[in-house]
Amino acid sequence: MTSSFSTQQSRTLFVPRWLLALAMVGSMQAQVVSAARESTPLVSAAIEHGASRPAVSSAVAVYPPVIAQAIAAAQSRIKAGKKCRRFFDDRGLETMGLTIYSLQELGPGSVAAYVEGNRVFLNLNPKGAFMSPPTGFAGMQSAEEIRGFYILHELAHELSRATKFQVDHSASQSMNKFRHDNNDDLLKMNCY
């Protein structure tokens, strides 16, 4: 079964109802919609079904609730602390707005996310750290707050010149753990 939406250019776009349902439960990848189509019924329908869209100058992103809540938690953390804003060189919120977040299968285990350029890939695996964050991680209790930490960790990689974050994914597992822990400590010290 499909729903149809007419765009401003008089074209009809057919979207299966099951795809809209996936947006509601947070199991689909983010959709990036050009600014020219910002007000199309497709975007409006996704928002009506629980997705949110951060303000971005060149594009409008529609994220499933699990990502939108994590982004909101990360933004709140930056806004709440002057030290945290300075840690991100006062560019944290702007950079987050220009970043594209998507869910990807990264396997079970401790991998929550990774960043490539301005794209952050969040682990969609139900047994992965993003979808099933460890209880009490860094003293945090809510899953949204922990996921927000993961968003900030990847943001710190994007702004590594300011944050001094080190690459924490290499061939050496022991070096990865050492650098990852140091990176997390830097983030905790400045934002938590």
Provide a short characterization of the protein structure:
The chain is of the alpha+beta class. The chain is 44% helix and 17% strand.
Number of strands: 7
From the alpha carbons, calculate the radius of gyration and give it in angstroms: 18 Å
In which order are the strands of the major sheet placed? 5-7-6
What percent of the residues sit in helical stretches (DSSP H or I)? 40-55%
The H/E string reads EEHEHEHHHEEEHHH
End-to-end span in angstroms? 47 Å
Structural class: alpha+beta
**Which ranges are low-confidence, i.e. pLDDT below 50, for 5 or more consecutive residues?**
1-49, 53-58
Percentage of residues in DSSP E strands: 15-25%
Q: Please tell me what the overall shape is.
A: globular
Quickly count the helices: 8
The largest pleated sheet is described as: 3 strands, mixed
> Mean pLDDT, as a whole number?
78
Characterization of the model:
- With 192 residues, the chain is α+β, with helices and mostly antiparallel strands.
- 44% of the residues lie in helices and 17% in strands.
- The protein is built from eight helices and seven strands.
- It has helices at residues 17-25, 41-48, 65-80, 82-87, 92-98, 143-158, 160-163, 173-191; strands at residues 2-6, 12-16, 31-34, 59-62, 100-104, 113-116, 119-123.
- A three-stranded mixed β-sheet has the order 5-7-6. A two-stranded antiparallel sheet has the order 1-2. Strands 3-4 form a two-stranded antiparallel ribbon.
- A hairpin with a 5-residue loop joins strand 1 (2-6) and strand 2 (12-16).
- Helix 3 (65-80) packs across helix 6.
- The longest helix has 19 residues, at 173-191.
- The radius of gyration is 18 Å and the shape is globular.
- The termini are far apart.
- The relative contact order is 0.12.
